[in-house]
Design goal:
Layout lengths: L1 H11 L8 E8 L22 E5 L34 E13 L1 E7 L12 E8 L6 E8 L15 E8 L6 E11 L33 E7 L5 H17 L1
Antiparallel strand pairs: 1-7, 2-3, 3-8, 4-7, 4-9, 5-6, 5-8
Helix pairs in contact: 1-2
């Protein structure tokens, strides 16, 4: 408790240094609306049209599929179905004319059952570039909404998933960002199992299964560029101190 309060106090005075990136994962048997956060229509990516660098979208996805990833709404069931039989299923880049600070990155996927399959799962990498630095850095790789080997419709029942990449101390995740790249991988083989995108024997294979070829249905990518106001953080810290006094 004391550590959390100290962190809040530091942030309240404006020292929002980047900590260690980590991610949370959530899954529900139902629609995106049951997940812990709503899709954000005011985030830094809202309305942006990304550059597709590899892979693409399933033929069932109304063109242009890039719009569905950042339109601030869940959309219809066939919107933003990524490309099957492609590795990666989609690699997309977003460029910012003005550098931004990033507090969180949230990705939503959905394909409610029954019947259940693997399209509600997620597996992706995130890379970034900073203002004045031409180097591309890896933020996290293989961000997954569940563990390899889980079976939708058998070991679990999943209609929608959310992943949230954040700073382990809830400060800024990244600062002065001018580019973000998302690399999405296929997640299954039509039967509902969550498999990695590599064949058995590949250096990066971790599950011993053939490579996944069925892709996710990604409902939204949100880049949250607002951090709680100092006054709000100070109130949270004072509330924590009051709780300690009671104890």
């Amino acid at each position: 408790m004391r550590i959390v309060i100290a962190g809040l106090c530091v942030l309240a005075f404006g020292t929002a240094a980047m900590g260690v990136p980590m991610y949370d994962k959530y899954k529900v048997d139902g629609t995106v609306g049951l997940l812990p956060w709503p899709i954000d229509a005011t985030d830094a990516l809202n309305g942006m049209f990304g550059t597709v660098e590899a892979g693409g979208f399933h033929a069932a996805t109304p063109a242009p599929g890039e719009v569905d990833l950042t339109d601030g709404i869940e959309g219809a069931g066939v919107e933003a179905v990524l490309a099957d039989f492609s590795n990666p299923s989609l690699q997309i880049r977003y460029d910012f004319t003005t550098p931004i600070n990033v507090r969180e990155i949230r990705v939503f996927a959905s394909n409610p059952g029954p019947p259940y399959n693997s399209r509600a799962y997620q597996n992706y990498d995130v890379e970034y570039m900073l203002d004045g630095d031409p180097t591309t850095y890896e933020l996290l790789d293989y961000v997954r909404s569940t563990e390899y080997g889980n079976w939708n419709g058998q070991t679990e029942f999943v209609g929608s998933t959310a992943t949230r990449i954040r700073n382990d101390s809830y400060g800024w995740l990244l600062q002065d960002v001018v580019q973000l790249r998302f690399r999405f991988y296929c997640v299954g083989q039509t039967t509902g199992g969550f498999w990695d995108p590599w064949d058995a024997g590949h250096p990066e294979d971790t599950d011993g299964n053939p490579a996944a070829f069925e892709a996710s249905i990604i409902k939204e990518i949100d880049v949250i560029d607002v951090i709680p106001e100092p006054a709000s953080l100070m109130l949270l810290a004072l509330g924590g101190l009051a709780l300690l006094r009671r104890r």
